[in-house]
Amino acid sequence: MEEVRCWEPEYECMDREDLEQLQLERLQSTLTRVYRNVPFYRKKFDELGINPEDVTSLSDLRNLPFTTKDDLRENYPYGLFAVPLREVVRIHASSGTTGMSTVVGYTKNDIKTWSNLVARILTAGGVTKDDVVQIAFGYGLFTGGFGLHYGAERIGASVIPISSGNTRRQIKIMQDFKTTALVCTPSYALLIADTIHEMGVNVNSLSLKYGLFGAEPWSEGMRKEIEEKLKIIATDNYGLSEVMGPGVAGECLERNGLHINEDHFLVEVVDPETLEPVEPGEVGELVITTLTKEAFPVIRFRTRDLTRLITEPCACGRTSVRMSRVMGRTDDMLIIKGVNVFPSQIEAVLFEIEGTEPHYQIVIDRKGALDEVTVYVEVSESIFFDQMKKQREMIEYIKKRLAAELGISVDVKLVEKKTLERFEGKAKRVIDRRKL
Amino acid sequence: MLRVKNIDVFYGKIHAIRRVSLHVREGEIVALIGGNGAGKTTLLTTISGLVRSRNGVIEFRGKNISREKPDRIVRMGISHVPEGRLVFKPLTVEDNLLLGAYHRVSLFSSRGVEEDLEKVYSIFPVLRERRKQLAGTLSGGEQQMLAIGRALMSRPKLLLLDEPSMGLAPTIIREIFGYIVELRDTLGLTVLLVEQNAWSALKVADRGYVLETGRIVLQGPASDLLNNRDVQRAYLGRDLDAEVPID
Question: Do the Cβ atoms of A218 and A187 come closer than 8 Å?
């Protein structure tokens, strides 16, 4: 095995007892600050008769209330900020959605911390200052692009902020700039791989060595495919904008679970139904409390991501607990082309359009490496039978509305009344044909 | 090296320290900053055993010392340099230093005390020059060096420093803080430093804690605290909103 490289070994390889002391100190001052500075938390704690000063151990965290995505939405845009806006130097919002987005802020120190944590993950994934890192994540409100960008710069790597899209150009730059590390979603990595093949480029002529992929769920099978097609070592990393963005956890070269940056994030795994902690090592919903965030701390945030914790020591030498790759969601959120989409958003748009019936189905498929979404909508007989022009207009109109709402383009097909399958009880509105 | 967990200290009904947790790792300089009456001195005196915490744990090198007597704590390797220096003014400089080793001196042996005296003199040459002088005749800066020198005479592993800059001129303050860094770098001492002069303290410290009305409200790397706007406003004397660029 090659020599273990850590960005901040004093924290990543910390003795458990020292780590827990640090976590407790940080948790206590975070609670003091949110209670003092965020009316939402103060009100919630007061209502439940919780005095944050009573938290004297990490397990006391269990007595505190959860924070959900709805709480974040209800406090749109700045309600949960723990510092005045003038101290915020960056604002991001959760990917894709417009009407339902959640807004997060960062102080100067938050950006510094974030860069360091992403630097840890890049280092764990093999990247050093000698690498040329091509960041094919979208730049913008989405935390992926900027998060990885700052982390890679922190390491001292040469960063190519190419952003996503224009795959042939990505490959041209990869060839000309001698890119050694690729950062994007796993599905985009596959598309790049297939395009390289289509263009007749010899993969061996590229300088690629490492790939760091995240922002959507993927599988071991996909990893194998990417590694073989691109001739790289591919690692998984995890993060979410509500908590910080990328940098929460990431795999080392052992590729056996994602090391959680536990000195900055306190994690729990709970049963999504009972909300009680699961047995150690069991699968449940990941709950995260931030320990160092200044502008946007969250207490017991329900990520809705299903995972399990791995406490066995890792061969890489890091002492942090690992999480398995995300196994699914506890809500109906879909991740399409890296964008978070809720079926309820699609339903809300259809509901407002005259002539549509309240029956629809969302079919997601993966063509090559890219996600494709088709929304089948039942329409009234009058529209379906005789008015071709009207039909076309309607399709265009629904497409436009959905694109505006979701931030991604979807295909729309109109179908005759009562052609979609009917369900007793819970309707199966989403058919996900993607094979991970 | 030092680990404090959930301690509360009361003076009668006054809750002076509220559920404070902090730690100091070997070889670190850690600054504890905060305004008047925040509880900084109380926290230090609790660690050195002069004040008792109502609950919680104070661990020094793996051993709970929260119920130990102060003299035991000194023997274990924690030395406290009190606020206002408190040197014995009618005694000579050398006698002051020897008092710092009182627990190691008996009629029969003075194990290595001479050697330690020599070490202190080599760190603070001005004390050697004034060894026969009465401590009361020293300047403020020299008295501070004497107080630190006295603390070193017990061969501490951890030095608790309470307001070393108090009442000193800026150049002297710089000199004293220079010595603190030197003690860590050359003797391998670990330092917990209480300061109202937050800027000087954070400049030399590795990490810091901000204490407000008995609670720790912020902690982190010293450079982060220097960047934190709350710290800047409250303790570094910078009113950012009032700052007007000069053309």
Answer: yes
